[in-house]
Specification:
homodimer; about 190 residues; mainly alpha; Tetracycline Repressor, domain 2; DNA-binding
DNA sequence: GTAATACTTTACCGTTCGGTATGGTATTAC
DNA sequence: GTAATACCATACCGAACGGTAAAGTATTAC
């Protein structure tokens, strides 16, 4: 009995995710959230708990979506080298096309919250570890198909590529010349051989 | 005429730098600052202007000190390969030795402020560009001495190494297993040949 | 229809925020 | 010594913060 929730919880969470992604945790106020989510303050508390809990839910939603997106992109191409190239180049294209650089929600959180909050240290670490495994599996596929050298250290290489991806994502926030980023991508992709 | 300033401005700025470095801009309050700097609130305003201006002064102090520190480390070793290795390994050691990961003040600022404040976009970009030139000069020295291959693209390589350095610094905030970082460093250093 | 229930809305809570006006105090120039 | 000056410390400002109590409203079960 009783009334049913009027707003779409998933849709509201998505709006919160966009906002936290853009502005980070501290700089996002509850007023920002209510106006963007289209619901009132107590609705946030009844549906999600509080600001921190809402942030965590938003981050979880983001990391799950992002991981499966990356997995798909790397699997869609029969050539592993081409798959990584397209992935990196698309990433750069998107950041330079948009007027604004959101970067990666998980990376932003690693910088803002992970050093002071163990929950987010763990959450972001697990996401990065998961991505590095996705990278590793793609590289191992390339080794099995003969596209990549047999002697390749798939684990170390995937970890280095992930670290480079993070570095790329972060430095683009300072809007360096496009050639800077393009050069870096070329050097990284040359590791795949 | 009139009274002279009682506190050491440079020392107070240094305390502010440490605090902003640890906690970022938004999460650092004026109360935090006054207690750590050992001075009262109006003294901050008369000496530095305001919170944003104090932050900027602290960031400038940091980037200048950091750049010259890095330049020194890369010049101190006759072998460029060894210089980069020591530089990266020391960086990792320091982060894993301390219980707490401050990372790099400029990188933290790139993530927190650069996307929303052009002044810090420019400031952080210029610092990164400066570092990449330091890297490039080191690599070019290595090419002249014959330690590195003549065909090396010094510019692209230095940019890629800088991007990797940023990625390393950031991912360490999530405290991955040490082997993860060590592996990445090995792959990156292998680019120097 | 009725009573119970759970959501929405409004208004408000104490606290903390960045920033400043004010008054006391030490130092300077003369 | 004296007057002018500039720093220091306290107290305070309005605004915004995260969070919640209370009242109104729609929906449910019976």
């Amino acid at each position: 009995m009783g009334r049913n929730r009027e707003f779409d919880e998933e849709q509201a969470l998505d709006a919160a995710m966009q906002l936290f992604w853009e502005k980070g945790y501290e700089a996002t106020s509850l007023s920002d959230l209510t106006s963007r989510m289209g619901i009132q303050r107590p609705s946030i508390y009844s549906a999600f708990g509080g600001k921190k809990e809402l942030f965590e839910a938003a981050l979880r939603k983001y990391t799950m979506a992002r991981a499966s997106e990356i997995r798909t992109k790397l699997q869609n191409n029969p050539s592993v080298k081409q798959a990584f190239r397209t992935f990196f180049e698309d990433l750069v294209d998107e950041e330079y096309t948009e007027g604004f650089s959101r970067g990666c929600f998980s990376i932003n959180t690693m910088v803002e919250l992970a050093p002071h909050d163990e929950k987010f240290e763990i959450l972001t670490r697990e996401h990065q570890m998961y991505l590095s495994v996705i990278f590793q599996e793609a590289i191992e596929r390339g080794m099995q198909s003969g596209e990549l050298e047999q002697g390749t250290n798939a684990k170390a290489l995937s970890q280095a590529l992930l670290v480079s991806l993070i570095g790329l994502t972060v430095i683009m926030k300072s809007r360096p010349e496009r050639s800077f980023v393009d050069n870096s991508v070329e050097v990284m992709l040359a590791l795949l051989k």
